[in-house]
Design brief:
alpha+beta; Aminopeptidase; eight-stranded mixed beta sheet; 8 strands
């Protein structure tokens, strides 16, 4: 994420550089990238309460639950395909600190769906990205979207996404994007039903395989 003055995003600060070198990724994988244009207004749909859950902004007391849900998401994706691009063990251990930093920035939001005891059962992380090299500027990104299994098919993710959309409309952000693994079809179906349109596919491959004299990928 790159910060820029005069971005129109209150309190925006650039992310600090990543002190860790990038780890090699030796296996092939593809990921769909989708986006949705935010309208100038969002219909007033009552999403704050639906029977037994409510949607609210995450608080510091939720950090342990946010970490639990993100780890559960990674485990689900790895179970679908062990080749999936994943967070490092060190970063997983620091997730609570990472989420605390995200929550401290005014241009970011982490929303949770909480049960009747106010325990988070779903989450989304929303960040506004202001990159001077990209158009439109700014745009937003959704990551770490999760709903606990007993709460699925109850409109929880729809409620979380609508809450994100209202926040982005207020901030006059015209575009929001996310990605999902191609080996998780229910996820892609969910996002497309919510209005996201696939635009790109990112491919991953082993450089060793690509450089092999007789590459299994064939001629092109």
């Amino acid at each position: 994420m790159e910060g820029a003055r005069g971005s129109g995003v209150p309190g925006f600060q650039p992310d600090p550089p990543n002190p860790r070198p990038l780890e090699p990724f030796p296996l092939a994988l593809s990921v769909s990238v989708a986006s949705v244009v935010c309208p100038m207004s969002v219909p007033e749909v009552r999403v704050e309460r639906d029977m037994s859950y409510s949607v609210r902004r995450a608080r510091s007391g939720d950090l342990a639950e946010l970490k639990r849900m993100r780890i559960a998401l990674q485990e689900l994706l790895l179970d679908k395909d062990p080749r999936v691009f994943r967070l490092s063990g060190d970063f997983l251990n620091e997730l609570d600190s990472f989420y605390a930093d995200v929550m401290a920035r005014d241009e970011n939001r982490i929303f949770v769906a909480a049960d009747e005891r106010d325990r988070p059962v779903g989450m989304v992380m929303l960040r506004i990205l202001d990159n001077a090299r990209m158009d439109p500027r700014p745009m937003a990104r959704i990551d770490d979207a999760w709903v606990d299994e007993p709460w699925r098919s109850r409109g929880v993710m729809k409620s979380l996404v609508l809450t994100c959309a209202r926040f982005l409309v207020e901030r006059r952000v015209p575009l929001v994007m996310l990605d999902w693994a191609n080996n998780n079809p229910p996820s892609g179906e969910c996002w497309q039903k919510l209005g996201f349109v696939p635009l790109m596919t990112m491919g991953f491959a082993s450089p060793v395989d690509l450089a092999a004299p007789r590459s299994r990928y064939g001629e092109s």
